[in-house]
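Morning, I've got a small favour to ask if you have a moment. Here's the protein in full, and shout if anything looks odd to you:
***
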Amino acid sequence: MKPPTFDYLRAGSVGEVLEGLAQQGGDARILAGGQSLMAMLNMRLAKPKLLIDIMRLEELRQIERKGDTVIIGAGARQADLLAWPELAEALPLVSLALPWVGHMQTRSRGTICGSLAHADPSAEMPLALVALGGEVFLRNTRRRRRIAAKDFFAGMMLTARAEDELIEGISLPVVKGARVAFREVARRHGDFAIVACAAMKTQAGVRLAVGGVADVPIARDWPELEGTALDDALNAFAWELGARDDVHATARYRRDLVRMIGRDLIGEVLQ
């Protein structure tokens, strides 16, 4: 199939992007990397009247560390972040998760914020954002606002972004000396995860975040549990996620993966 007819705007500034969103609202879509959007257009799952291209806005491609925070702009490619020299030290969890995102070819075009905007519950970057407790920067012609990762994802491919807002960037905390672990199960490397888990040692104990099961990535914090206490916590969490059967896996299989991978990763970060 081919996409429906739409107007195309190659934005020359962020202001031009915001004006386009203000005028068209829900009838406008942002083109950053296009790795998800172009497929949706061709299948006519998305039918915008205006496509706003931000791919050439250098002001949105920043990746910079500011104290204990890393700022990533809306135009920053996944490959750009993977090649950032400070990634492993500043964001070790992201450095583990990012190679699982698609393939080298798609990472060279796909953007970090584009993946967040698409909000597929199986995607790795939404999971990493929730696990780290990051924030999303939103902007329209009237205001800027910040929203916590846990409040940004509203459902399967749904977010708290208003129709006239641009995801301007995100911030991720630098957790110094944190022990982290990541693992996912997919049919093939590069496919969306059947289940993905991220674990992190925290001051209060441990955090486990899970993607690919519920409609949004979800994180839980626990003290340092062991033995049956840990098994009970993981079992309760696996059931709370509300897994469903689909063409990729059964709900039971997903719950089993949450229990098994969760135990392994928690053991890894608490060593």
